[in-house]
Give the backbone structure.
Amino acid sequence: MVFYNEKGDKMNIYCGSAKVDITPTESKLLAGYMATRQSKGIHDPIYARIVAIRSQQTFIILVSLDLICIDQNYTVELRKKISDQTNVSKECIFLHATHTHSGPGGTIQETSPIWRAFPDLWMPYDRILVNEQHKKIVEAVKLALENLEECKVSICEGEVSGIAANRISSEIEYSSILKVIEFEYCRTNKKIIVYHFACHPTIMNRNNLLISADFPGVTSSNLENENNVEIALFINGPSGDISTRFTRKEASFYEVRRVGTVLSAAVLELLTHKKQIKVDTISSKIEKVDLALRNIEDSAQLQHKLHELKQRHKIQRVTAGNNCAYLRKIESEIEGVSALIKKSGALENSLTISTEIQVLKLGEILFVSIPGEIFNETGTEITNNYNGVPVFIAGNTNDYIGYIVPEGYYASDSYEAYMTLLEKGSSEKIRDTILYMMDQL
């Protein structure tokens, strides 16, 4: 079936949006930082933001959740609920977690590989919390679909300095690219903004006990307070090794506000240079991927590494002074080795992890799901293969298998290299799978 507007012109695309508060009403254990943290209040609400897109009879549903991550079980269940109540195909539903470390835990089931490997890292699965989230998200998706209107689509991108840097080493070059899509309703001029930026939302540290979406929450809220902006949906890019460790001034909500405001201003500035594009087709493809589990060093080697790191930390505490960023780097390495020691044998009866990659095509725009924390250099390798094509690589999407580390980092003393479940070459396998899928679309 072909859709036409009131003038009899062929319609290219319909869009609709919705936002729902998914903040728990009771105190919950907070996710992240390998620490048991019971929430003591709410600094700012956490949301599920939904953008529904239709071209002819094909739909895409983008869902962005202010959560640290979701696993494959969460995705399978929620996709089924959405599909059963809307008839949208499961493979066209894209579920992204912004990766805030100040949101509730309990979204990872104990059967998930990442939970089995690091049982001390994850909060107990909270079925009541997940069911409440799913119920609200399904209703919000239905609302977005009910409010579909004909849209114009524009894109823009540029570099934003001063917010994020490589957290393994401040000397590693990082081009902090901000990409923005604007959907503007033809009838009312209301706007939907989808913005993409790679950075861990970890301005608030383990001492924080208040629920918060961190800086993306401020950015989206600022944009949604702008005239005619209906919703601003954040997609966190390839940020496995990117954070505010070396750029933030302090771990405070004042700093969260400052960084979020800088990013929202950058979005608005970029939109003054937007370019309208034609979108007449949308499609989706999902590929299952099996990834080999790594071999863990023996306990004696790991204990030796742990001793060396603790000695370095003692020295740095004296020499670093107030340089908390470098102390935090060593502390994270200690956490990683300690976790690796505990992980030895946790997955001894498993040889592989099965997960998925999803690619959505919206005209010339590509959305790519990553089931964990991929490094920025791998994201750059993917986008460089499609120079001039807007590629939105979304980490922590549809599943969570932890850090996805390039081959060259396995010999390093980085937290990410210690924490990965995957055998060397897994990041490159994911990259090549994505490039193949993008070629197919």
Notes: The longest helix spans residues 299-319. DSSP finds ten helices and 19 strands in the chain. The mean pLDDT is 90.
